[in-house]
């Protein structure tokens, strides 16, 4: 992600949370707009039970005088990633606040981004960064265990999106095949025309 693009859309599936957060934080501070979809499929190294215990220990950290003052324990996967990014950004300065405004995080793949090319970040991919055989946990599962209520809703919407996407791809490939066949069938008839156009330097 060395060059600037209008918006970078990242598919969060299979990325390690901390590594992805650090790359997004750096890019946002440099002025790049970043969107992350499928936050529920992000991974964290370590087995599930260990990570669940860590989260429950985090839930104990609160203001003993008045818990409504904080700390605020986000349950949704997108908010867990947001908090990881926020910790890597000087969010109390104008520059840091502006960087956080450039970041959008979603569970699933909502409407405008389901038709956009999504990219991965090789430096944060679990298959490339974690030693084979090591245990890992999916953020969506931890969130579900600690009170995130929308795992089933997101899964249902993702199924619908994938079915729609598969139907679109079938139509696209069928249309491309018809187009290719039409070009091949008229190749002989257009040979002279193409030769005269080529002679003109086009």
Biggest β-sheet description: 3 strands, parallel
H-E order: EHEEHHHEHEHHH
Q: Output the number of helix runs.
A: 8
How many whole angstroms does the radius of gyration measure? 23 Å
Strand content: 5-15%
Structural shape: elongated
How many DSSP E strands? 5
End-to-end span in angstroms? 36 Å
Structural class by sheet pairing and helices: mainly alpha
Q: Low-confidence segments, ≥5 residues, pLDDT <50?
A: none
Helicity level: 40-55%
Notes on the protein architecture:
The structure is a single chain. This protein has 202 residues and is mainly alpha-helical. The protein is built from eight helices and five strands. The strands form two sheets. It has a three-stranded parallel beta sheet. Helix 1 crosses helix 3. The mean pLDDT is 93.
């Amino acid at each position: 992600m060395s060059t600037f693009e209008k918006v970078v859309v990242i598919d969060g599936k299979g990325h390690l949370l901390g590594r992805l957060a650090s790359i997004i934080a750096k890019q946002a501070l440099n002025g790049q707009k970043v969107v992350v979809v499928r936050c529920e499929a992000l991974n964290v190294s370590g087995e599930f039970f260990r990570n669940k215990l860590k989260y429950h220990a985090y839930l104990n950290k609160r203001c003993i005088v008045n818990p409504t003052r904080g700390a605020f324990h986000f349950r949704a996967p997108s908010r867990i990633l947001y908090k990881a990014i926020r910790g890597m950004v000087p969010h109390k300065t104008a520059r840091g606040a502006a960087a956080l405004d450039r970041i959008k995080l979603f569970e699933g793949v909502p409407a405008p981004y389901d038709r956009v090319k999504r990219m991965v970040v090789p430096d944060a991919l679990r298959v490339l960064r974690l030693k084979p055989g090591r245990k890992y946990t999916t953020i969506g599962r931890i969130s579900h265990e600690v009170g995130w209520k929308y795992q089933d809703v997101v899964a249902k919407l993702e199924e619908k999106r994938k079915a729609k996407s598969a139907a679109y791809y079938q139509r696209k490939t069928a249309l491309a095949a018809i187009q290719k066949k039409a070009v091949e069938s008229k190749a002989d008839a257009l040979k002279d025309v193409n030769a005269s156009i080529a002679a003109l330097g086009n």
